Amino acid sequence: FLFKKIHTKLYNLVNNKKGAFLSWKRLSAATCPLRARFFIIPYTKEVKQRKEKKMLTVILAEKESQALDYAAALGTFTTRKKVHIIKQTPFLSGEVHIVSAEGHLFEYGLPKDNWDLTKLPLVDVSFKQFLKKDRTSKEIFKRIYEEVMAADEVIIGTDADREGERIAYSILSHIPEGKAKIKKRLWVNSMTTRALQRAFQNMRDPQETYNSYLEAEARAQSDWLVGMNLSPMATLNLQKQGVLSKEKGNSLSVGRVQTPAVRLICENDLAIRNFVPQTYWKLQLEDKENEVVFT
Predict the structure, then answer these.
(1) pTM of the model
(2) What distance separates the 2 farthest-apart alpha carbons in the chain?
(3) Beta carbons of 160 and 189 less than 8 angstroms apart
(4) 193-236 tens-digit pLDDT
(5) DSSP string, 147-204
(6) 199 Cβ contact list (under 8 Å, min separation 6)
(7) Which of 81, 106, 179, 192 minimizes the number of CB atoms within 10 Å of its CB?
(8) 204: which strand partners?
(9) Phi then psi for 52, rounded to 5 degrees?
(10) 173 Cβ contact list (under 8 Å, min separation 6)
(11) Which long-range contacts (CB under 8 A, 24 or more apart) does 18-25 make?
(12) Least-confidence region, from 22-26, 104-108, 275-279
């Protein structure tokens, strides 16, 4: 009777969640006449966290509209502080959090001495990236940083191209273990719900697309070298020749793609300006017998 009474009280205590759980251990009859003994162990915060812990996957999107489409394709979601949370989805294990980068958050630093012609060209460059100084970029990176640090694994979900790859790796490389947590690459060619769900079912190994990041990085570095060397060189030389004013802020911008494109526009404009109208004749042959006109 006493054993049953103790057992009932302890059972109620546990199931009412009043701060304890039950651990039961059988002992020999010689040790304990009741053949059983109960130990009350505090229901600590650590034990609770261990029992509730489940896998967390973070998907890094390139922009907010993209993140919302991903969340809708995965299932029911809630949004907290611009993080879209999916508690359960048939496409991924555990809980899923989706955050967006809103484009490039990091950029190369500016050189200090490229306006001295004696120090050009600049070729020995480290190409270290820095977080942009605007408030929005800092807030976005802080949010992504916190999510990635808490994640068990990361899925790259930026645009399926070189620049999308570069955006993802430039961010994750500035987070401890960020690159090590990358497990899958979401490769999307259509933003319809069905297409996104198929993409989640057929995600790629991140190593398959890593070369796209290297290609984009090489392109960015070449752009930097062209701009930071040729812009001051062209500006200073034209100012020395008296072609360009030396007023503050009056400088030229030279770019790997920008400058050839500007030349094409200028050549087309000159062709229009220099156009001379000419008289010409249009011939037409008519076969009246068969009622056919040739032009």
Answers:
(1) 0.74
(2) 129
(3) yes
(4) 999 999 999 999 999 999 999 999 999 999 999 999 999 999 99
(5) HHHH-SEEEEES-SSHHHHHHHHHHHTTSTTTTTTEEEE---S--SHHHHHHHHHTPB
(6) 186, 187, 188, 189
(7) 81
(8) 185
(9) -90, -10
(10) 179
(11) 19/43, 21/47
(12) 22-26
Shortest CA distance to 157 belongs to which of 128, 199, 214, 117?
Answer: 199
Residue with tokens 């611009």: 82
Give the pLDDT band of residue 61 (cuts 50, 70, 90).
very high
Query: How far, in Å, CA of 224 to CA of 286, rounded?
Result: 63
Angle at Cα 8 formed by Cα 6 and Cα 12, nearest 5°? Answer: 120
**In the Cβ-directed half-sphere of 72, how many Cα atoms lie within 13 Å?**
11
Q: Give me the amino acid identity at 199.
A: A
Residues 129, 172: contact at Cβ < 8 Å? no
Structure tokens at 174: 């500035």
Give the pLDDT confidence score for residue 113 in this predicted structure: 85
